[in-house]
Design brief:
- By secondary structure, the protein is of the alpha+beta class.
- The protein has one domain (about 5-65, about 85-125, about 145-185, about 190-205).
- It contains 5 helices and 13 strands.
- The protein has helices at about 5, 15-25, 40-55, 120, 155-160, and strands at about 10, 35, 65-75, 85, 90-95, 105-110, 110-115, 125-130, 140-145, 165-170, 175-180, 185, 195-205.
- α2 (about 15-25) crosses α3.
- It starts with a helix and ends in a 13-residue tail after the last strand.
Length: about 220
């Protein structure tokens, strides 16, 4: 499976077991489906650097790439959900955006978000670090291969195009599911009790932007 034509891939992270344990203990809040903007957390920052080194060694990320986002997701018996077909388009910035092409500004939990231009979105890569085994019964990620090459889609187009050739992205503990944020993706609710913890990291590997990311590690 190649990341370029399909928009996703799976590789082992080779992160130390102690770091995985620390992430499970520190990055996830009880009773919360997800926590955003975690790059200030020391363990998350360390994981972002280690994942970058791993992907750089594989020739997937350049040395100049920076982590710009970290989100902790967990599906549990108490907090369980489905996600419809969509693209990841909104990202955190250091201040309200004003440059041409940066659209849909909003503010969540005191942090400014916007949709960057298509060329910037194409330079992003999500690395989903699995902290539990992820199988077909606990709400795994589903991706529609190749859709990352179709630009920004309307929600109606995404709903219609998502199921075309969809694949289920299974992973073991410590695996990385790599995904282009423009690739259509979805997930179903978990069908069994337990945790499905994922640390979702996003890296930017393009040139310097006129707008500053909220964090860039």
């Amino acid at each position: 499976m190649s990341l370029d034509p399909h928009g996703w891939d799976r590789v082992p992270s080779h992160l130390p077991p102690q770091l995985l344990r620390t992430l499970r203990d520190e990055a996830f809040k009880a009773g919360s489906a997800g926590t955003r903007c975690l790059l200030d957390n020391p363990a998350v920052a360390e994981a972002s650097r280690e994942v970058k080194r791993r992907l750089q060694a594989l020739g997937i990320l350049p040395a100049a790439a920076v982590a710009i986002q970290a989100i902790a997701f967990n599906k549990t018996p108490e907090i369980n959900w489905k996600v419809a077909w969509h693209q990841d388009l909104m990202f955190p910035f250091a201040r309200p955006v004003s440059s041409p092409g940066y659209d849909l500004p909003s503010r969540k939990a005191g942090i400014d978000y916007a949709r960057p231009p298509l060329a910037v979105l194409e330079d992003l890569l999500a690395a989903r670090l699995h902290l539990d085994d992820c199988h077909d019964q606990n709400g795994p990620l589903r991706v529609s291969p190749g859709t990352h090459r179709s630009g920004i889609m309307s929600s109606d187009h995404a709903a219609a195009a998502g199921r075309s050739g969809e694949v289920t992205c299974l992973a073991g503990e410590g695996d990385l599911i790599l995904m282009k944020p423009l690739a259509l993706h979805a997930s179903s609710p978990s069908l069994i009790p337990g945790n499905r913890r994922v640390l979702h990291l996003v890296y930017h590997s393009g040139s310097r932007l006129p707008e500053a990311w909220h964090r860039a590690l």
